[in-house]
Design a protein that fits this description.
Layout (H helix, E strand, L loop, with lengths): L26 H6 L7 E7 L2 E7 L12 H16 L7 H11 L4 H4 L1
Antiparallel strand pairs: 1-2
């Protein structure tokens, strides 16, 4: 009979609950899960176990919208709308304006 292959067991780490329920998550686990100060966790009880799951206030696929750069552009657009005269561009005018801002001519886009 062949010897059974050695199974690698997960490394167990014990944590002490300190005053006021404070628990420190070891650095190796924080790095593995890319957790940083200020990140949020969801705590649930499953089958008598405490389970901590990283949670995002903002879904990962929408995080780009909340970057400082994007928010600055949003504020700029809001200001332009507030200061605007209410005119609306046609699609052709819009494309020409975009091309001009990019240093192209509308013909370059055709």
């Amino acid at each position: 009979m062949a010897l059974a292959a050695h199974r690698r067991r997960p490394r167990l780490t014990t944590l002490a609950i300190r005053r006021k329920g404070i628990v420190t998550i070891p650095e190796a686990i924080r790095q593995e899960l890319d957790l940083h100060e200020g990140d949020h966790l969801v705590a649930t009880v499953e089958d008598g176990r405490l389970v901590l799951t990283p949670a995002s206030i903002i879904p990962d696929d929408q995080a780009w919208f909340w970057t400082p750069e994007w928010q600055a552009r949003e504020a700029e657009a809001d200001q332009e709308i507030a200061e605007g005269d209410g005119t609306v561009m046609s699609a052709e005018e819009f494309i020409a304006d975009l091309a001009e801002r990019a240093g192209l001519s509308a013909d370059d886009l055709a």
